[in-house]
Amino acid sequence: MLEQIYYFSLFLNFLSVIVFFVFALKKNKEVFKVGTFLIGVGTFLLAFFLTLNGIRLGYHPAANTFFTFNFLAMLIYILYFVFEFKFKVKLLSVFILPVGFFFNVVAAFQSKLTPEMVKSISPVFLGIHTGFLLLGEAMFLISFGASIMYLIQNRNLKKKSFGGWYSRLPALDDLEFIAGVGILGGFPMLTAGLLVGFYWAANLWNNSLWYFDPKIIWSFIVWVLYGYIFYCKITERLKGKRFINLVIIGFFLVIASFFITVFFPSIHSLTKDFGVK
Amino acid sequence: MPVCIVGLNFKTAPVEVREKLSFSMDDIENEAPLLLSKPYIDETVILSTCNRSEIYFYSEHPDKAKVVVEQYLSERAGIKQEELADYLYNFVEFEAIEHLFRVASGLESMVLGEPQIAGQVKDAFEKAIEIGTAKRVFVNLYRHTLQTVKIVRNETEISKNAVSVPFAAVELVKKIFGKLKNKRALLVGAGEMCELAALHLKENGVEAIDVVNRTYEKAETLAKRYGGNPYPFDKLYEAIENVDIVLSSTGAKEPVIKAEKIKPLMKKRGYKSLIIIDIAVPRDVEVEVGDISDIYLFDIDDLEKVVEANKKKREKEAIVAGEIIKDRVYEYLKWCKLQDLNPIIASLRKQAEEIRRAELEKSLKKLKDYPDEVKKELDRLSYSIVNKMLHQPITEFKKAAREDNLEGKMIHFFKSLFHID
User: Fold this and answer.
1) Is the pLDDT assigned to residue A260 strictly greater than 80?
2) Cα within 13 Å of Cα(A268), Cβ side
3) What is the mean pLDDT of residues A201-211?
4) Disulfide: which of A56, B17, B209, B338 matches B226 by Cβ 3.0-4.6 Å?
């Protein structure tokens, strides 16, 4: 039964992504409403599925790739709703939701088994660590989506193409503002998530060289870059396209961090030999 | 009884004819009651703008009334009736109401979707209501017209995008800055179009407009008007450093704003976006300026391009608006039919009540000695029977009207069924 709920939600989310693309082409308000309804129900079912699993397992389910990616997808969908409600930028759906759905669908092909080791370690730490990080990353995705829209609109204005999406995309400054909100909200989350992770790792593996893990080093690079973007935003040091470019680079690093464990052995590889020796 | 129009507009008549049939508000005040006093015309509204003159009238005999109005217009213009007929159009009932809704929504305007016409329609109807030439029918039609205009504006983008060069400039600026509050503009030179754009910017919330001019006195006068600072021409780049928007139209033969000088300026500005709108021909701004990051340069052709794109968008929206208007006309006519039923239903109820009262009195006389409770009960009983009997036919009658199934014959039948005049 649980599994059916999951696949049904996945199907609804898939449909909504298609519907939002149709909306992008046809700019019909009714189509947008249909898409919103679909993704609304889909998100609700996904959240329901994850909650039930959390209750069944007795801990935050983000302990394997399947749950982690789905949890991230859910956060992205929810954040999309928050931002759409706040800023009323309908086209944001086209730039945000497909990425959410990407994680949603990649998750479906992952093993649903949870490694034995993870079960034995602190579920509270795991929940806080992954929760903060994923929420931060979802915020960065919003920034990324707004930034892509910024680049398209900037190109329209520079190349003087006033047809098509020119009139539907919002003003550059408004898009930059949304990107800024994503950074301002996301960076503290990222920091909190990493700090919790460091504290937890230091306690768990006190004498080992856990910090030489590729994912941790990569995360540190990501943190430094976003720290710089955050600093630039607060001090208004970087504006316009320069700021937007950094946001986009930052997000590619985030995406890479998800898949880095595929190429390098890491304590974050959720396989049998989990954990450092 | 239908609503009708006789009129002419910029599509059907040249200005020589239109000017002879234009009505000022004073003319309307004098002539509308005169028109109303003529035979077959029960209500009238005169709409006159520089692009159209239209007589809206309500008549039981549209054909005869049409002739009366045409005669009147021919006399007023001093043009023979046969000759004038070539310039006139005439619509009745559905088409007339559709025409009114289209006119008020700007669909029949020279500049598609322009919003001023709605105000002119409003003035015309309000004048007619004030002087009493518009009565029940036109007062209601007026209400429906205003609603339609509102719906068309909300549901389509017919009046949304700029279709003139100065407005296009403002639209572009808004596409970059969003809100114009706390933004500062600079006027370089003083072309007419530039000043118009400056005015629109100010109306849209730009904080102040500085002015650079070769004649410093002129700069001072203009700067005072827009609440900004004047600059002499050699301080041009200093002036640019402090603003977000530059509007340029000087008579210079060579570019006055050069890329090599602007580039270092951008660093000083902290790479804050700068919009430069160059309306001058020959152009005031070097083309290379547009290649600098965070500078958005638009020349007169770009603005025309925006206008063209927006006109096309309006044409598309006009089709949607036309459909909305058709629906609104159907709704209005349905509403009218329901209104026509009200007096019939009212007299039916009145007649039933009279019969009931008469019969009740007869009975009460006979039942004099019975206690009051019995009399009261008798009253309630008769009332309840009459109402329950009438409920179904009235409901069905109204339903038929709502569903548009009610023909004149049926109304007649209904009346004779209950013996109503």
Assistant:
1) no
2) 25
3) 74
4) B209
